[in-house]
Amino acid sequence: MRTGEPSLVTASERLRGFERALTEHDLTVDPDLVIDAGSSIEGGRLAMTELVENRRMPSAIFAGCDETAFDALMALRDLGLSAPKNVSIIGIDDHQMSWFLGLTTISQPVADQGAFAANLLIESLHRPGLPNPPSNHVLDTKLVERKSTRRRR
């Protein structure tokens, strides 16, 4: 599953990163299993229901944000399925509810992201003639393994 509105850079970049990671491990992306779920909780339910009822069940779901993964987990439950028994689910963001729901996720340093952006803004206000800010700034992320995923057998 991918998330985000087509105009959001984050969603398209996350999808590109997902596709690149699969390619680097000699795996392919099945376009029939890529569903734009939006970046909402409701989108996760719709996308998961679409997969289970009209497509086929993959072994794992990569949701573009934790909120989408939340309702994908609930949709599985409503369909008589569960994660990780029937499918592994992973999100991104490490939302506060991720721990409560047992969602495996990719944690981002949100406070560091905000501080970096604020510092760029302050610097540009104090020194308006500076060149453009960096277009790429990488901060560490980490995988937080919880109960919604299992290793492939």
Textual characterization of the structure:
The chain has 153 residues and is an alpha/beta fold. It has helices at 9-24, 41-54, 66-78, 96-101, 110-126, and strands at residues 60-62, 88-93, 104-107, 142-144. A four-stranded mixed β-sheet has the order 1-2-3-4, covered by helices on one side. The longest helix is centred in the C-terminal third of the chain and has 17 residues, at 110-126. Residues 1-7 have low confidence and may be disordered.
Keywords:
5 helices, 153 residues, elongated, alpha/beta, 4-stranded mixed β-sheet
In short:
By secondary structure, the chain is an alpha/beta fold. It has five helices and four strands, in the order ααβαβαβαβ.
